[in-house]
Amino acid sequence: xxxxxxxxxxxxxxxxxxxxxxxxxxxxxxxxxxxxxxxxxxxxxxxxxxxxxxxxxxxxxxxxxxxxxxxxxxxxxxxxxxxxxxxxxxxxxxxxxxxxxxxxxxxxxxxxxxxxxxxxxxxxxxxxxxxxxxxxxxxxxxxxxxxxxxxxxxxxxxxxxxxxxxxxxxxxxxxxxxxxxxxxxxxxxxxxxxxxxxxxxxxxxxxxxxxxxxxxxxxxxxxxxxxxxxxxxxxxxxxxxxxxxxxxxxxxxxxxxxxxxxxxxxxxxxxxxxxxxxxxxxxxxxxxxxxxxxxxxxxxxxxxxxxxxxxxxxxxxxxxxxxxx
Length: 325
Hints:
By secondary structure, the chain is of the alpha/beta class.
């Protein structure tokens, strides 16, 4: 289906939980305990049913996110239930990677095809300051994903000035060494209102300039490593493939947006940077009503905005971990 602006929307990002075993500065504000109040997260069966209905409307690409999706013990069951639905072309996973080593094989067997791993620093102390976690666990997870034979493993880094900017070049060298696509992502106002400040914000344009001091960037305008908005460049000397996601500074960022998001508590969000959400649970409980569910999904597409609201003093009402990565 197309949205009101003629964009083909065929990609759904599904948050399976708002729980996480890390506390990233840009995702989960200090003291957040939203999950402790939630008893209404979607079941595996409900998620799979929503995917089945979404496929009927033309959705073909799906990504499981969180929170941290691997804290959910039925994730492989969800993947398998989705993978056997005719019309599902690809299922991906976004994870912090800390538990990936233990689950990579079972997820691949269930039908998972791609993995995106958050890696905001290689230095253990910097990584811990940004995420609260252990980078050694993430690196073990990345190695396990590569060994398991997923079709694509990508690495993501959220840029924060003064926090992890010294890690930019080490991450480029890491990506080149392991032949992994690396994406640098601008900070978005989805944690606390004080997170997106001039002090913290590091634009992707500045990062490109820094890389140009060390290597030549060759544009890859036709390169698509997945279904997102990254613009890719090949670094001539190192051989690294680096993507840039500039939601704030790229004024054409939303021109080809093809996605909607399903939150862990059953709300469809047609735009990450807009507060509109449509609750699907009335069509699922106490019993499933396919006609109502289909209409709610169509309503979501019909209300997808032309662009996000991040540049107009956007004030987050739900933090990133409660929306889905």
